[in-house]
Every structure is written in structure tokens, then in C-alpha cells.
């Protein structure tokens, strides 16, 4: 009877978005009279930072500082349609829609400025600080605030844009079953080190080292935050969480935080995360969906590490002490006399 | 049920209310006084989202009867910023990306303040112990631990 150490590795491909009937998201962008830009969405920010990312994408595309963009995700009754924030699709789907809407709004903005400056819109560029100038002649310029005022009060134009990103429904090929359920794929790899008590079946995750390939980290701190939290969730899925410990029976299902297990601050594994960027051709400035992917590779990596430690393969989650002990007993029964 | 009169100091200002006997402090703070920084996560003392300080001691507002707070001094995360200037813990949580959905944040900050008030230079283990009654579903705790340690460091350099 001893504490046994094991190491496991796992790598995953993770699809961005899902496509069971077409996967669209729409966005609308318009300028206020003062040259701020308003992004209307139905996509929800549930703490992952979607609003800030959408503001960055709009600002980058139109050519204004991020602080000049207001994102409203208020209401699915009134907002442009979105399938929802799930399947790691928010940044990719809503982001592409916001970029499309922002491009259209930018074009109108440049046309308004061109009329005001008596030049051709194709000859105009933005400085990213809130000004529009003639390419090669930075002094021939107008601020975006003045452009918005001119549009509203002199030219009678609405500086606005519409955007939709649609992944059409993909039907399975009748002969092969092949289909294209998702667009770009994010990738991840985890190495997990565990310690298994072969007397009690308890597992302690000592360390997880994760590499995540996310296309492009549009906001590196927000991405890191999501990856660190996700890595913890992956450990939780592997070893702790379930609503149905004896599935399909509902017996002993937890009903509150006393019974629903998650690792607490005292159970943290030493965690390292690295980000790789391989921009996706169809991603908003190359981004893929890091959302759910970040909580996946830890699970098979931990299962493999447990196998490495005590030689039993558990393929049911969560990997509880009970399941490990049962498997150890079965293994001992199958090879009597062999020292474990 | 009979109503009882209670008076206490909430984040420095005097409050007086009539409440049903048996009303929790959490209900009084949120429903009567519109301080939404303590959250009702479980209402049974297991998540810490409702944490507040009563006379400097950390308490779960969901399990505290309002009438037991007569004459007490109550602090919540909502009262930490003074004249628009954030408390060092709030700055550290923002700078350290220690909040995602934000549901646990008020309770985490109160638990951390209780720690720093009695131990201005905590170890990592002290921080873990101090927040171990608070559940966070988003961050994986690591950024929160980092933020509390950063706030402690910022406090000591400010005083030095
Ligand atoms: S609401 Fe009070 S501990 Fe959860
Ligand atoms: S930030 Fe969401 S629960 Fe902690």
C-alpha cells in the first residue's frame, strides 16, 4: 500500500461553434452624434469578456480607440439575432458579424468624411485615435466626432452597418456520413502529474501543464484568465463533479454545494499554461474559440496518469476513489498472486 | 410576525429599518437598503457569496438574523471604495483579472479584507485558508489568490 505517482498526456482538437441547423449571428453598428460607436447584439456576456472583445473588434475595424465603443447585449426580444454564447462560438461567430457590420459603418463614415473634405473616400484612412485623414497628407483631416456631427446634422446620413456571419447547415453525405459540423478547430495538450493512494483510491493532481492553440489571442489577459479557470474546471470534471454519481440512477445526486464536489482553493494543482497562435483563415483577426476547449485535455491526461500510477483504466467520469478501488480489486482478482 | 426596529451602521452611514422578526441580514441589505454587493448564492452557508463584516468579523449574511445586528457596524464590498477611489483589494482584483462573472467577487473581497485587517502580510497558505469558505465557479481561484497577495504587497509599499 503506497502513494503511487503517474504522468499522463492527452491532446485534443476542439471545434469552434456547432452546426445542427445553420449557425448564424448578427450584429448592428451605428455611430452616435458624437462619434462613439454602438454595437447591438443578442449574444450574452456571462463573464468570459465577450463585450470587451466585441468592442476591440469594432474599434480595430472602424479605426477608433476601444473606449469609443459601447456594446449593448441587452435583449433577445429587440437585438439582432444570435444563436447564443455556447459551443465556444461567441468570439468567432459574433466577432465576424461585428467586423462585417463595422466595415459597412466604416465605409459610410469615410464617404461622409470624403464629402466634408471634398476628396475621394478611397483616399482616406484612419489613425486609430479618432481622426480621418487623406493618405499621405495627414494635415487634410477631420475628427470622427466632427464626421459624425456632419453626417447627422448636415448630410442627413446614418453612419451604420449590418453584419451577419452564417455557417450554413451541413448535411451528412448519404454514403459516407461525412459532414462539416464545425468551422476552425482549436487545439490543446495537457501533461498531468498525479499521486494515487492505492489504499484509499484518492487522487491528488500535483501539476498540469497545458498548451492551448487559440488562433489568435485577441486579448491575451482575458484569454489567459479563461484558460486558467478552464484548466481548473477540467480537473474538476475528471475527479469531482457530477449530478448523477450512479447514472442512470438519480440516487445520491447532489443538490447543493455541500454535496456537489469541486476542487477548492486548497486543492489546486500547480498549473502552467502556454498559448500558441495559429490564426484561423475564417476567424475574426484569426481567433478561434478557446472557451470549452480549455477544460477538456485535463480529463484524458489525468485518466492516463492514473493508469500510469496504478495500472487501472477508468473510463467513467468523475474518477472517484470508489471507482479506482473497485478497479484495483478487479485487477487483483484477475491476476491472483501478482503483487500490485 | 411582529416587526422589530433595528439600527446599524452600514459602510459608515446610519440605517434604521423595521423588519419582520427572522429576516436575514442579506435580505435587509439587498431588498431594503439596495446594497447588492453581497449575493445570495446558496442561502445555506456554503458558498460565501453573501459574506459581510459585522463589527470587523466575517459573517455569512444569509445565516445572520438582521435583529442580531442591532447597534453593529457592518461593512460590505459595496462600501469599500471611498470617494470614487477603489480599495487596494478592488484594484488588485481588477488588475489581476481575478473576476469573471463577478458573482463571488463581493464575498471574496470581504473575506480577503477580513484577512488583511488581521494579517497584513499573509502567506499563500493564509490566503487559501481565508477564502476557502468562498466558492468561485469561474477563475480556478489562482488569480484570486494572486490578487490578495498583490494587494497585501501594495499596502506594505504604500505604508513604507
Ligand atoms: S448565500 Fe450565504 S453562504 Fe451562500
Ligand atoms: S468570478 Fe464567477 S464565481 Fe467567481
From TrEMBL, chain A:
Annotated InterPro entries: AldOxase/xan_DH_MoCoBD2, AldOxase/xan_DH_Mopterin-bd_sf, N-heterocyclic_Hydroxylase
GO function term, MF aspect, one: oxidoreductase activity
One Pfam family of this chain: MoCoBD_2
Domain Aldehyde oxidase/xanthine dehydrogenase second molybdopterin binding: residue ranges: 4-266
Name under which the protein is recorded: Molybdopterin-binding aldehyde dehydrogenase-like protein
Organism, scientific name: Chelatococcus asaccharovorans
UniProtKB/TrEMBL annotation, chain B:
Coiled coil location: none
Enzyme class: oxidoreductase
Annotated PROSITE patterns: 2FE2S_FER_1 (PS00197), 2FE2S_FER_2 (PS51085)
Protein name (Swiss-Prot/TrEMBL): succinate dehydrogenase
Keywords on record: 2Fe-2S, Iron, Iron-sulfur, Metal-binding, Oxidoreductase
Known cofactor(s): [2Fe-2S] cluster; [3Fe-4S] cluster
GO molecular function, a single term: succinate dehydrogenase (quinone) activity
Domain 2Fe-2S ferredoxin-type span(s) in chain numbering: 4-80
Known EC number: 1.3.5.1
InterPro entries named among the record's database cross-references: 2Fe-2S-bd (IPR002888), 2Fe-2S-bd_dom_sf (IPR036884), 2Fe-2S_ferredoxin-like_sf (IPR036010), 2Fe-2S_ferredoxin-type (IPR001041), 2Fe2S_fd_BS (IPR006058), Beta-grasp_dom_sf (IPR012675), Diverse_Oxidoreductases (IPR051452), Succ_DH/fum_Rdtase_N (IPR025192)
Family in the record: Belongs to the succinate dehydrogenase/fumarate reductase iron-sulfur protein family.
Organism name: Chelatococcus asaccharovorans
Pfam families xrefs: Fer2_2 (PF01799), Fer2_3 (PF13085)
